[in-house]
Structure formats: C-alpha cells, structure tokens
Records
---
Amino acid sequence: MTEDPEKDSRESAAALRYRPEDNAAPRMVAKGEGEIAKRIIEIAEQHGIPIRHDPDLVAVLARLDLDTEIPSELYQPIAEILSFLYRVNEQRKQ
C-alpha cells in the first residue's frame, strides 16, 4: 500500500496483493484518489497493513488496470516495498 503525502496525505492510494503461490508478480487490487483513497487506507489500517509513502510509485501504479500483475519494470521498486513489509512483519512478531 502506498499513498501520496504531498497532497492531502490521504488523497492518492494504491494497494497490491502478492501471493507467490498463485501469481508470478504482485497484482493491483485497489487504487483511487480522494474519498476512495481514504477508504483504501482506512481498510489497510483496520487490517494492520503497513502503509508506505511513495508518491512517484503511486502515480505509476495508478496507470495500471485493476487485477493486473505489475509490469517487470516495476519489479525493483515493488521488491523494495516487499522487503519493507517483511521487516515490519518481523518486528511485529518480536
């Protein structure tokens, strides 16, 4: 999950799902601006999903269609986010 803190800190958001056993790459599962972005972020917070702020990446992700795998040119920045999420999850376990 990413959002754009420059605007309203909750104005743009995108959410990805990655299930390596089902998909070759993460898939776009939600995106939006304004009220939709706020709702995406609320749902993430309710479920304890960490939020990563990256306005450039959210702008690129916003161009993708829903339920599509991310293109290979986004593998590196998404891998960095996955690494961030794994670290956060490990810290929460301790």
Note: The mean pLDDT is 87.
---
Amino acid sequence: MVILRKISVNDNEAIAKIIREVLVELGVPKVGTAYADPELDTMFSTYQKARSAYFVIEVDGQLLGGGGIAPLAGGPEAICELQKMYFLPQARGMGWGEKLIDACLGFAKEKGFTQCYLETMPYMKAAQKLYKKKAFGYIDGPMGATGHTSCNVWMTKTLA
C-alpha cells in the first residue's frame, strides 16, 4: 500500500538516511548541497515552521522518499522553494515524484505563494525531466540564499 503523507517525528532518521544515500549514489558533493544542511537530521521540526511542509512516500510501512516546500530563504515572501526531493532507486519511475510535486505545489498555493523555485545538479536528468513536465522552466542564476553553492541548475514555476 502506497501512502503520501506529511512527515512525522518518527520519520527523521529514515528520511535523513534516504537523502544521504541518494546523494552519495548520485555522486553529489557533500559541501554546498542538501547533504550538508544542518536540518537534515531534524526534518520534522524544520518543516513545522510557517508555510512549510514535508511529504513522504511510504510503501508497506517503509519510507522510500520525500520532498518539501518552504519559503525561499532570503527571497521575497511570495516565492517558495521545492526542497529535498529524493527517492530510493526502487521508488523511481513509479509516478510518485509527480504526485509528491503536486502535493507540494498544492500546499504552496494554499499558503499564498505565487512562484516556486528549485535547485538541482546538471546530471540529474530524470529529475529535470519531471520538473519540466510540471511546467518548471530554467532560469539563468540562483535565487535567495539557500547555501547550496554546488547546485548550478535553477528552475522556477509560476503558481496559478
């Protein structure tokens, strides 16, 4: 059984492990990426802040991935950021990424955001394909102050 739900405090260890495993698998630098984010081990409390939510995909009681939405650090209040969206290999290609993005963007619209920003890496082609399918477009430079200096692909989407 597949469940898409908001993160619980009991998910902290599992989702941090998933994110780190995927980043290592993809050869992502540990500095200047989500790998080094201080909130990685306390995701539940991080996403309890105003206008923030983190969703997880649970299959038969096991977490297989997640993704979140939060105000863009250092950005205008109308812009949110799609954050920390990662799936274990066995969860990829199942359509769950699209469902997760839909949940995140639906939440963002409810909270009054008018634009969504994201950062990724050039070789994360499958992720970019999904983002383009969901009407994200490339922009020329970073927005806000995310601290992800190693991410050099930036995309945005207008939220209607």
Note: The mean pLDDT is 92.
---
Amino acid sequence: MIEFGLDVKSGVPFHRQIVDQIKYGIASERLLPGEQLPTVRELAVHLQVNPNTVRKAYSDLEILGILDTQQGTGTFVGKRQVEIDETEKEQMLTQICSELVARGSQYGFTLKEIVEHLQRRLENGE
C-alpha cells in the first residue's frame, strides 16, 4: 500500500494528484493487482478533501481500466499494467525539482546548496 498525501502548493488539482499517486504506485509495484484501496470516505478524511475529489479520481482510473469498483465490496487495483512513459516521467521530475527549489528558497537555500546536499546524499548511498 502507498501512503497518500497532497501538496497544496503544487498547483496540481487534488484529484490529479490522487490519480498520479495510484498510477505510480501500480507502475512501481507498490500497489498490486487485486489490492483494495481505501474507501472514498476513508481517503477523503485522511487527505482532508471533499469525498467528490476522491470519487472523481477513482472514477477516472476506473474508466481507464486501472481500478475496479465492486458495489458493496470496495475499490481494487485492476489487472491492467500501468507504464509511465519517459515524457510523463520527465514532467514529474521537473515538477518535483521545481517544488524542491521553491521550498528550499523559502528557507534561504540557494540552488547550489541544494545540489551540493543532493550530491552528498548520493555519495553516502542514500
């Protein structure tokens, strides 16, 4: 199971963040076929969003054949494989890096300091 979270400062709609997290969870095999997802209400409470936001995300993924909702039982990861293409990966990495730089600058870090820190982590095997 993955740990769901939302970034309120990213500018990405909440339902899209939920969709992306589920897709990446499946692509990375942290979510497996047949695995049950939290109910709409449970996830909405956890993320502190309107249940319609979660319902829209689940519905979008169900239309794509990625999720399977069984009335009275729950929502499950479908059997369809999810692959993230290089363009989508690049867009996600760009977004992550932009958020990192923006947050770092809020605390007074320069891009050089951030890169040096990441390089130290790489050298330490993190």
Note: The first strand starts at residue 67 and ends at 70.
---
Amino acid sequence: MQIFLDTANIDEIREAAQLGIISGVTTNPSLLSKEATSDYETVTKKICSIVSGPVSVEVLSEDADSMIEEARAKASWAPNVNIKIPITADGLRATSALSKENIKVNMTLCFSENQALLGALAGATYVSIFVGRLDDAGHDGMQVVQDTVAILDNYPELDAQVIAASIRHTIHCTQAAMIGVDIATVPYKVLMQMIQHPMTDIGIKRFLADWESVANK
C-alpha cells in the first residue's frame, strides 16, 4: 500500500518526504485554506518540488467544460500534478475527456462502489472513497473500500487505483492495508501516530539505561 500525505502544509510534507515513506500528496481547497497563503499555484509548485510522486490538486469549476479548461491549466503547473474531480455527471464527462489527453484524474468524493466504478470506467487514474465521512454518516466506510477493490479486481482492463481517503486514525490505515487497497491518503498527525508506540519508547529507554550501566562498570 502506498501512502499519500493529505495536507497542503509545506513543513509537514518536507518532513514526511525525508522519512522516505510517502509516495505522493493530496490537497484540496479546505486544506489550502488552513495555510498562510491562498495561492494554490505557488503552493502546488512548491509541493511538487519536494515530492516526485503524484500531487493531487482539485478543480473548483462545476460544469464539464470549465472543469476541463481548469484541469488543463493546473496540469501544466508541474509534470506530477494530478487533477481531483468530484463524481458528478459533469465530472465524469470531464474525466473522460481529460483521460484521452493523458491528464491523470483523481475522482474524488466517492461514497459508493457504483460511483467508484463509474469513475474507473470514465478513465480516472484514481478513485477516492471517503472512509471517515462514510463512518460519520453511520456507514462502514472501509467495507465500501473493500467492495470496490473486489469489483475492480474483476476487471483488469480498468486501470483505476483505489484510494482510501478521509483517513481518521491508525486503525483505518491497518484496515486499508489488510484489504489490499492501492493507496491511503493519511493526515500528517495520523502518519506520526503510525510511527509511535509506547513500548518502543520504553524499549529505547531500557536499552540506553542498560548500556549506560555497562559503560560505567
């Protein structure tokens, strides 16, 4: 399973990239609004200079023609930019057109297996299922991910990779990996929690204490 860091914070991205464990970055207008700058292009180009893998940026247009025009402009910002397009009728139309131009699309805001399947049929490179938001609404978000993986496995001609998005905690990460999902988009806080375990901290302290006692003899 690949991990995409879900943030627009440059410091977080730089630190995570140095760990050598992330394969890409996903952003959206909500994440960007939390940062000091609202210049989407500048932030995106900076992220793309840090991360060599895919960097997803979202269109703000709602009709297909405007989505296509906006996607072309944003795809020109850097070679590794992917375009996030929401799963709507206009989104599917735009995705179909863009995929024929070799512009990679991350079909976002998928909440059902059918939506993800339609995104794959339209030519999306990625289909993002929002696990946390499904859980919030009383559904089993990870079950939707598992079912989507099973459906797309039946049709190898569909190249879309499944993304477990809206990850809320480390258990989501474990479940996604056990399912065999292609990618999980993980917030920086959750990524740091994946690294940590209290028994590791205790073990390090014990090893250092043992070594110090030996060194002092």
Note: The first helix runs from residue 10 to 19.
